[in-house]
Amino acid sequence: MDIHLDADSPVPPYEQVRLRIAELAADGALPAGAKLPPVRRLAADLGLAVNTVARAYRELEQGGLVETRGRAGTVVTARAARTPAEAQRAAQRYAETTRNLGVAPEAALELVRAALQLPG
Prior knowledge:
The chain is mainly alpha-helical. The protein has 2 domains: 83 residues, Orthogonal Bundle (Arc Repressor Mutant, subunit A), CATH 1.10.10; 37 residues, no CATH class. Helix content is 57%, strand content 5%. The protein is built from 6 helices and 2 strands. Helix 1 runs antiparallel to helix 5 and helix 2 crosses helix 3.
């Protein structure tokens, strides 16, 4: 899997992994149904702790971008494959901007809900 971590980035490693997998799915490099490597193997390949990769997978699953099927592994969902890569990049830029401004994550989400006119 084409994931390269930037040790100098203010973005935590789990978030870099999560964003890259989401981007690969959105770009079609990981089509719907594609099986992700087991957490332990990807962690070893990237030189990360198992819990770091596990967190990335959990957050991808909470976002509906992957689905864990027990012994069958973790696969990319159709939803992830349809998410435009530019939308993923825009979300990343927003997260970095709010983080740099010192905005708490919950406050950043509330700003997005307000901008989209979504109920809180």
